[in-house]
Batch of 2 targets.
Target 1
Amino acid sequence: MNLKSQLKIFCLSFIVFLFNSCTNNNVTSDDSLKKYFDQYHVTGTFGMYDNGHAQFTIYDIHRFADSAYLPASTFKIVNSLIGLQTGVISNEKMVIPWDGVVRADTNWNKNLTMEQAFKLSAVPYYQEVARRIGKDTMQHWLDSIGYAAKNGRAVIHTDLDSFWLDNNFKITADEQLGLVEKLYFDQLPFQKRVQEVVKKVMLQEDNSNYKLSYKTGWGFKEDGSSIGWIVGWEEENLHPYFFVLQIEGPQNMDMKNIRIDILKNILTQYGFFKGIK
């Protein structure tokens, strides 16, 4: 498939989320980013949408638009939205008591608020949230936002508290970008308060030059290889730039550090973090 055909497919899929058309003129393919993936011996894709200029910058357009992977802990964005909307989560300070099961990540072995669980990516907290939401309600909201529905309706076939981790259904990078763009502008079918709370807990860095908001994810494909995500936005001078990073590598890779290093290397190359964008 040639680049023109790839761009056409990308534009058709992304229109679902941004409600506007996309042309070859506002999509830039940036192969210079390959060096950051090669540095850590991983494959992957990166996409950024400059909202102010309606410009996309993509590394590996085919993978960005057409390859779907389990969402892993990026699903905590949606799980939080549904939990807050339905009242299962009252606010970001709501505590779910530790279940007493000792886990490898010692940060999870205590009572956590929603905000703490989100930032620590505490799976047990959000598994309990999913159980409290219930399968029918969860499915209703997944259908309402069209989550992971590019290749048809995403249906929960397996356990309610692990379907986002077990390759039950998969999401593309362009769908992830569309989700965070709509969240930022309160365009998802949830109460504005709900969306504001989720945006609040997504904020990771905040200083005089920029704000960096994101959610990470780490899971494993059927063949055991690691899949990592970072989805969110960087904001300078009240101007948002939405991004998705997706990487794939060996099962035992240092995903936690590698994915953030790649993201920050890319954003630095593009001139971010200085407050001049």
Note: Residues 139 and 228 are 24 Å apart (CA to CA).
Target 2
Amino acid sequence: MRLSTRVRYGCRAMVDLALHAGDGPVALEVLARERHLPDRYLAKIIQDLRRSGLVSSVRGAGGGYVLRAPLDSISLLDVYEALEGPFCPVECLDDPDGCEIVEECVTREVWDEVQKSLNAVLKSVTLADLVRRHNEKAGKS
């Protein structure tokens, strides 16, 4: 099981926006350059993040993108769900009626644990946490 490129790039862009929080809007080209992301692909990702309400766009000279909420209120789960929808490793967790063996299936229980665990981890990590981690790695306090 792997996270999609959309989610990975989206998280990288959100971290960059978090690092620039308070500095004003960040241009798409700056996000792409600083996070080593393809411009066109990032533009599509940013639009989905904007539609979900995680970022706002600012038009005009000096425009770009800003976060719409405080860093400690945006989790990686929010980013994941904005780009991919709810995490669900197998269809039968969303639609138990679609499976003929749902009652006796022992692997479904494991997939349910995986879903709950991943959601809990992603929900527990905020952009504020990632900014702190970044600053620690960069030797900043």
Note: Strands lie at 55-58, 64-67.
